[in-house]
Amino acid sequence: MKRSNVLIAIAVASALLVAGVVVISPGKGEDVLPGNDDEAEPPVVPGNLTDPIATVPHPIGIDEGDAKLHLELSYPGQGDGSRFEWNKEYEIVLRTSGSGWTGRTVIKVFAERTEGIGSKCLILSYGNDVAKWESHLVHGIIHLSTDTFVWISDGQDERTDSFNVLFNRTGTFVLTFQAFDADSGAPLSAPVSTDEMNVPEEGRVAVKALGAEWKTIGNASYLVVLINMTNEWNVRHSVNITHLGLSYDQGTSKVSESLTSFKEQELEPGVSTQFLAYFPLDEGAEDVELIYAEPGQPPTSVPLDL
């Protein structure tokens, strides 16, 4: 810079200082002052939401004084011994509160079933995700575990999360929720569990007569009925022709096991089967009803329009 230019620059700067104006020349991006000095800096915490999460096979007991977080559950039927239905969703609300913990937090959920458990026994969804169950053998008993909500704690936690559970099997279930350090697997809260959630076996076999006609086979008369049976139990259930019969104005008639090709079939819940059943019966019988009567169950009666 020429001497004359330097003198001019000094003169301009002196004039601005006299006027009470401070001039700061912008530098690189990292040198620029933040626009809001009062804005709180984000907390610096270890871990990343997408980092691997430590495996914990079962709930871990913790002294109350060591707990950084407190969990509280609420769900339909809590504490009143309610029975739960198969194939129906129930919402479980989990409230998390506490202070003093800074780091990555994960809510782990553990599931047990008195009759034994597998990954298809219940479906747990949270947010937009569905739980991926892992099986662990703990003291000879299979437990399921899964990682759900993960977040970064900044020293103060107050949140509410919602889960939906659908029981895909009958039996007695218990779900346990616990907060952990996602990186080390150390417990941050005491475990909190549901009551025993009893999903009983319930249902019936639905029977329909889709059609009927008279047939003469040899020297005998038969009523041939097209039967549809649907398993409306919430478990697998077998249907058997030995429980079939007819009731009419003069008495009863059992199914012909020799002419009826169908014998027995185990059906999944909601699944139907269909077959022709032969009943020895004189043509012209009146008030004919199809009866399906399993031992220990109320009989099902279906009037036939002949």
Would you mind describing this structure in some detail?
This protein has 306 residues and is mainly beta. The chain folds into two domains: 64-199, Immunoglobulin-like (Sandwich), CATH 2.60.40; 205-303, Sandwich (Immunoglobulin-like), CATH 2.60.40. The longest helix has 16 residues, at 3-18. A hairpin with a 2-residue loop joins strand 10 and strand 11. The model is unreliable at 1-46 (pLDDT under 50). The chain has one helix at 3-18; strands spanning 69-74, 89-113, 122-126, 129-130, 134-138, 141-167, 171-181, 192-193, 197-199, 205-217, 220-231, 237-240, 244-248, 251-254, 264-267, 272-280, 289-292, 300-303. Helices cover 5% and strands 47% of the residues. Strands 1, 2, 3, 4, 5, 6, 7, 8 and 9 form a nine-stranded antiparallel beta sheet that branches. Strands 14-13-17-18 form a four-stranded antiparallel beta sheet, with no helix packed on it.
**Count of the domains:** 2
The helix/strand order is HEEEEEEEEEEEEEEEEEE
Radius of gyration: 36 Å
- Could you tell me how far the N terminus lies from the C terminus, measured between alpha carbons in angstroms? 116 Å
**Structural class assignment:** mainly beta
CATH hierarchy: architecture of the largest domain: Sandwich
Annotated CATH homologous superfamily of the largest domain: Immunoglobulins
Outline: rod-shaped
